[in-house]
Amino acid sequence: MERLFNQLSPYVRIAIDSMLWSSWRVEEREIWDYEILYLKEGRLEVSVEDKIYAGIAGDIFIFKPAQRHSIRALDGLPVRQPHIHFDLIEIADSKDVPVSFRMSRDMQPHEIRWFRPDLLSANPMYLPNHIRLRHPERFELMLFELIEEFQTKPPMYEISCKGLLLSLLIYLIRQHGWHTEEAGADMQSIRRYLHQNSEREVHLEELSAQFKLSKYYLVRAYKQRFHISPIEHHRQIRLDKAKLLLRYSNAPIQQIADQLRFGSIHAFSRAFKSAEGASPSEYRRMLQVP
Question: Which Pfam families match (predicted)?
């Protein structure tokens, strides 16, 4: 995985803001690279591998190498669709490969070899074909900054475009994977809530009510993001705070247990020993050994 991240150096092939007529359509095709299409105005019908999406303003569509897809405008209205074509990893032929408007069955053998590997269909970089953000303003600003850089071509714009595209992709991956906006979840907000309430016990029922999520979904999504359940994470946060108090203060163990609201010194000692392999008093004595 680290090797893949070290290789990431995108090549931006096209970055443009397009206003198209109401009759505009793209017949079914397979592209060699990736495309991110942002529907700024109008409505679209988008088909990806026979799955139909009804696109509205603010929607993002991601087309991946070798995926069959088609696009057509709806309602007889013009469509504004800023979009970018790119390779996720720049290679020797990146500058020579154009944008495809054909199916693979109509391509020459050397064109078949132009298909890039699809790195956005598996973790940790998974992105779906359709994303509908509740608040697309930040994504829109990032996209138009990239388009402006590509169109104006100031000095070293190629390097700048790489960085801008990586920032945009990271933002989308975080929005989809961390925040899971379609379900109204915000794992980062839950994590902050746990840190803000480290001096008391927090129950799963409280988190479920606070963030309007089912307990099952909340635990599953949180573990997927942070590899630990929210209640286990909160216990870890509290015990880490206890370790700091044991190390850097002279507060009695009973006072630390009360401050972190463990209920009793015995409950605190059991939880601490279970996590650290030593009781709070043993842990403090070990720190004092020269």
Answer: AraC_binding (PF02311), HTH_18 (PF12833)
Whether residue 124 is found in the same domain as residue 45: yes
Its domain, for residue 259, covers: 187-288
| pLDDT tens column, 68-119 | 999 999 988 889 999 999 999 999 999 999 999 999 999 999 999 999 999 9
Among residues 8, 51, 10, which one has the least CA distance to residue 161?
Answer: 10
37, 144: one domain:
yes
For residue 287, give both structure tokens: 């720190």
Give Cβ neighbours of residue 263 (< 8 Å, ≥ 6 apart). Answer: 201, 257
Q: How many domains does the chain have?
A: 2
Distance CA 129, CA 178 (A): 17
CATH of the domain at 214: 1.10.10.60
**Is residue 165 located within the same domain as residue 51?**
yes
